[in-house]
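Input record, target 12 of the design panel.
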């Protein structure tokens, strides 16, 4: 069976709520497929530590274009391809490409700094653009008609299929899962000025919560796996501390300090604002509508791995619950390893609950 016995398939996480009194997460789950959906369509899981592994490129972003729902042909997002529809002999419109028809070479040459968008390494893009069957159009879309696409200059194209190559809801990260932390504070409120986290892994007001591939951990270079491996070792240490305390009859909550989180994010934003990612001519999924770069890391992978190689317990506020039969004191808990200082990453043991890709593993 391996890991599969711990995985809940055909499920999606709808909401997660931190209980301040119990110092545990309650995760509401919806069954989306299979026979279980008929008999047990939804249920809840309680866990000591909650981990989000939903990533940044998981929820398609659909454009807000008038008439999109009125199109009588087939509409599909490039990330949710419907293979049951053949393209043979069809007029296909793709929304989300770049370039212009006149002066093709000049128009396809970016006027922004290299690297401000993801660099696509492909040997078939330009041949596809140069194909006589392709019409490259960058005039703004006015609306979708029942039979095609109408531009602001009045030109109308008839289509059988429209493909939305409009990317993902990257800057929202946890969307559409509703997360509520300590004091009833929602993640939406916490991130009202843009997503941020301590080292891209933990979030103020969310005790015993961690993220893989969270805010400011994407790369314009190197492999994301190296970032996630560092996060895994770091979060394992936090999980171990929570479970070790539980085994001693305690319920603890580990929450990153707001001042440490703010200082860290101010530092990386100052670096990022001087990078190609911040080019004002460049619109990308790396930054939100206000221009804040919420997705990308500001340094090298080696720097990030070194930063997460050990936990500084001074980064966290610790709340301690009651033991069975007596009240625990904050000084009874000194962090994993018992010295109250830094600790290198260790194995987590039996993790109670983790959420990935809107599925659930217990």
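The sequence produced for target 12 reads:
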């Amino acid at each position: 069976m391996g890991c599969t016995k711990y995985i809940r398939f055909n499920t999606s996480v709808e909401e997660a709520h931190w209980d301040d009194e119990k110092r545990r997460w309650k995760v509401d789950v919806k069954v989306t497929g299979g026979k279980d959906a008929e008999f047990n369509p939804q249920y809840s899981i309680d866990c000591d530590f909650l981990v989000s592994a939903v990533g940044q490129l998981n929820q398609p972003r659909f454009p807000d274009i008038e008439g999109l729902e009125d199109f009588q042909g087939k509409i599909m997002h490039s990330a949710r391809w419907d293979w049951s529809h053949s393209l043979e002999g069809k007029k296909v419109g793709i929304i989300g490409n770049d370039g212009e028809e006149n002066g093709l070479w000049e128009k396809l040459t970016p006027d922004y700094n290299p690297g401000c968008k993801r660099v696509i390494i492909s040997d078939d893009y330009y041949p596809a653009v140069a194909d006589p069957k392709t019409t490259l159009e960058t005039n703004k879309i006015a609306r979708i008609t029942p039979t095609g696409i109408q531009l602001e200059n009045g030109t109308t194209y008839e289509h059988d299929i429209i493909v939305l190559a409009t990317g993902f809801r990257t800057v929202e990260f946890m969307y559409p899962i509703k997360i509520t932390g300590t004091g009833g504070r929602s993640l939406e409120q916490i991130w009202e000025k843009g997503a941020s986290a301590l080292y891209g892994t933990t979030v103020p007001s969310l005790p015993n919560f961690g993220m893989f591939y969270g805010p400011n951990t994407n790369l314009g270079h190197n492999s994301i796996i190296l970032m996630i491996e560092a996060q895994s070792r770091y979060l394992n240490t936090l999980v171990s501390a929570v479970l070790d305390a539980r085994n001693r009859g305690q319920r603890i909550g580990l929450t990153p300090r707001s001042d440490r989180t703010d200082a860290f994010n101010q530092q990386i934003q100052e670096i990022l604002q001087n990078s190609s990612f911040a080019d004002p001519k460049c619109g990308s999924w790396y930054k939100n509508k206000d221009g804040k770069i919420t997705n990308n890391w500001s340094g090298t992978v080696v720097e990030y791995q070194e930063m997460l190689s050990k936990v500084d317990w001074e980064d966290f506020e610790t709340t301690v619950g009651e033991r069975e039969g007596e009240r625990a004191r904050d000084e009874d808990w000194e962090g994993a390893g018992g010295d109250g200082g830094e600790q290198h990453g260790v194995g987590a043991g039996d993790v109670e609950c983790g959420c990935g890709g809107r599925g659930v593993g217990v």
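The chain is about 20% helix and 20% strand.
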